Amino acid sequence: MPQGFRYLPDFLSVEEEADLLRGVEGLDLHPFLFQGYTAKRLVASFGRDWHFDTRTLAPGRPVPPFLEPVAEKVAAHLGLRREDFAELLVTAYPPGAVINWHRDAPPFALIAGLSLGSDCTFRLRPQEKKLQTRGATRSLVVARRSLYIMEGAARSDWQHSTAPVAAWRWSVTLRTLYAK
Ligand SMILES: O=C(O)CCC(=O)C(=O)O
Ligand SMILES: [Fe+2]
C-alpha cells in the first residue's frame, strides 16, 4: 500500500455499526450528480459541502447527532480534535454501485473512511498517468466496521476507487482541511 495509507479492521464494534446503520438509514440521501451524470451511489454531506461543478467549498448542513460519537472516536484515534473534521460525508452504495477513480477535492487533507453494512474492494493507483500501469494498482478488502486513513502520498499522489458491491454498503468519510 502507498505511504500514508492505513487500514484498521474492526475499528467499530458490532453495536456501534448497528447504531450507525440505524442513523444512516434515516438520512435523506440524494443521488450523486456530476456534470449531468447521475451515479448509482447516494450521498449526504454535513459540515461543509464541496460543489463539484463550481469547485468551491460551501458551508454545509449541520452534522446529525448520531455521527458525533464516531467522529470523536476517529479523531481520538488519530490524535485530532473532533472539530478538525470539517466535512462528514455519508455515501450509500446499492448493489452494483461503485465510486470511480478519483483523487479527493483539493481543500481536503486527511481522509478517514468507515465502512458499514458490507465489505468492498478498495483500489489505489498512481495519479500520474504514465505510472498507471496494470501492476501499479493496489487493492484490498475494506471490511464492514473497518477504518481506513489516507494522508501523505496516498492522499496526494494516488487515486482511489471501489469495485461494485454485492450488497448495500454505507461509508462515512471524515475529512480535515489543509491549514490556511
Ligand atoms: O466509500 C468509500 O469508502 C470511498 C468514498 C470516497 O472515496 C469519496 O467520497 O471520495
Ligand atoms: Fe475519495
TrEMBL record:
Residues 84-178 form the Fe2OG dioxygenase domain. GO terms for molecular function: demethylase activity; dioxygenase activity. GO terms for biological process: demethylation. InterPro entries: AlkB-like, AlkB-like_sf, ALKBH4, Oxoglu/Fe-dep_dioxygenase_dom. Keywords: Dioxygenase, Oxidoreductase. The keyword Oxidoreductase applies. This is Alpha-ketoglutarate-dependent dioxygenase AlkB. It comes from Flaviaesturariibacter flavus. The lineage of its organism: Bacteria, Pseudomonadati, Bacteroidota, Chitinophagia, Chitinophagales.
